[in-house]
Structure formats: structure tokens, C-alpha cells
Specification:
heterodimer; A: mainly beta; 6-stranded mixed beta sheet; 5-stranded antiparallel beta sheet; B: mainly beta; 11 strands; 0% helix
Chain lengths: 115, 113
């Protein structure tokens, strides 16, 4: 099972609000779960990432919450700003395994933060 | 720092034509990837290369071929383009290990008419 599911497909949040994007994975062997941010006309760029031995990671206004038993993880954007408007992808892959080097992405969430 | 460079940025092809998308990285990464991005479908893996000299199929390899020319370069070839291959194509690279961020190119917007 290689799929990574992501919801919602699109999200509209008012400035200052909290944006929450959820992901679920199937392959319990994955050991690295990054989030990527993509602005129109650009390639995705790493935003924040977590390993499954940690339940939460925070970097500024961005927090990943990880639930290993449920095979779910989520991105929270606190105090959302119009500059956060972008497409967000969750992903899953192996850190070191060479026989399975795929980086699998969720379908993406289009976030719009309105003033 | 160039990072990951893709050429061309835009391309229009007629059905049946062939072309090669070029990708080069200057970060000495082992792994390189080709993805296509379509509305509502996210990033779907076409092919990847875990190291120089090796390539493997991803989720949607049909209609594509790849070549890992050396450690720096990973090309994607469309032998006979079809309208279903209209998409934005991204090349990415990364190193396995603790610092494992994938770096993406700026993308190639391909239209097949």
C-alpha cells in the first residue's frame, strides 16, 4: 500500500484563523512524513517534516501532529496569513531504504486565506 | 545555487511527436524523480532513479521512458506524445538519510494538441 490520502481538497480560511489539513497513509514502514508548499508557477518546497517517533513538531506558525496508531498526520497553520495561500502536499517515504526510494505525495490541498 | 534545473519551461507538441525533458541537479544527490501534476491529482510519480545507472517505474510510467545519464542528469522522454500527457512535469532530487528534503525544479508545462 503506497497511497497517501489528503483532505480537504480545498480550504478557505479568514486571516488570523487556523488552517487544518489532514493526511492518512497505509504503509506502516514509512518513516518520514514531510509537508510541501507550492505557490503558483513554482515547484513544491519543503515546509516542515516529522518522523513517526515524535507526536508533534512545531516550526513557527506551522505544526505537524502525528498519530502513529491511527496512521494519520495533520498540518496546522496558526494565525493564517494571505501569504500562506498556496497548495499544500503531504508526503511519505523511507529515510534510508534503497530498495524502495519512492516519495509518495497526497493529492494536495488548495488553501486560500482571505483578508 | 542552481539546485534543480529543468528545460524547457514550456512546450507545445503535436500528437505523435517526440521530445525529451531535461533535468540536472548540482547538489550531488543520489535519487532523482519525475512527477506529473494535474489538477485534483496532485503529484504522481512517473519514474525514479535511486542511483546512477538504475531506474524504476512509478505510479504512471506508461508512455514515458527515462535515462539516468550520470549522477547529475535524469531525462524524461515522450516517444509519441498524446493529449493525455498534457501536464506540468516536475523533476526532483534528494539524498537518502537524515537530511532528506526533496528539491524540485521549476517545472515544464507541456501541452499536446
Amino acid at each position: 500500500q503506497q497511497q497517501v490520502k489528503q483532505s480537504p481538497q480545498s480550504l478557505i480560511v479568514q486571516k488570523g484563523g487556523i488552517s487544518i489539513i489532514n493526511c492518512a497513509y497505509e504503509n506502516t514502514a514509512f518513516d518520514y512524513f514531510p509537508w510541501y508548499q507550492q505557490f503558483p508557477g513554482k515547484g513544491p518546497a519543503l515546509l516542515i517534516a516529522i518522523r513517526p517517533d515524535v507526536s508533534e513538531k512545531k516550526e513557527g506558525r506551522f505544526t505537524i501532529s502525528f498519530n502513529k496508531s491511527a496512521k494519520q498526520f495533520s498540518l496546522h497553520i496558526m494565525d493564517s496569513q494571505p501569504g500562506d495561500s498556496a497548495t499544500y502536499f503531504c508526503a511519505a517515504h523511507f529515510l534510508l531504504k534503497t530498495s524502495y526510494d519512492k516519495v509518495i505525495f497526497g493529492p494536495g490541498t488548495s488553501l486560500s486565506v482571505i483578508p | 545555487n542552481a539546485g534543480v534545473t529543468q528545460t524547457p519551461k514550456f512546450q507545445v507538441l503535436k500528437t505523435g511527436q517526440s521530445m525529451t525533458l531535461q533535468c540536472a541537479q548540482d547538489m550531488n544527490h543520489n535519487s532523482m524523480y519525475w512527477y506529473r501534476q494535474d489538477p485534483g491529482m496532485g503529484l504522481r510519480l512517473i519514474y525514479y532513479s535511486a542511483s546512477e545507472g538504475t531506474t524504476d517505474k512509478g505510479e504512471v510510467p506508461n508512455g514515458y521512458n527515462v535515462s539516468r545519464l550520470n549522477k547529475r542528469e535524469f531525462s524524461l522522454r515522450l516517444e509519441s506524445a498524446a493529449p493525455s500527457q498534457t501536464s506540468v512535469y516536475f523533476c526532483a532530487s534528494r539524498n537518502r538519510g537524515l537530511n532528506t528534503e526533496a528539491f524540485f525544479g521549476q517545472g515544464t508545462r507541456l501541452t499536446v494538441v
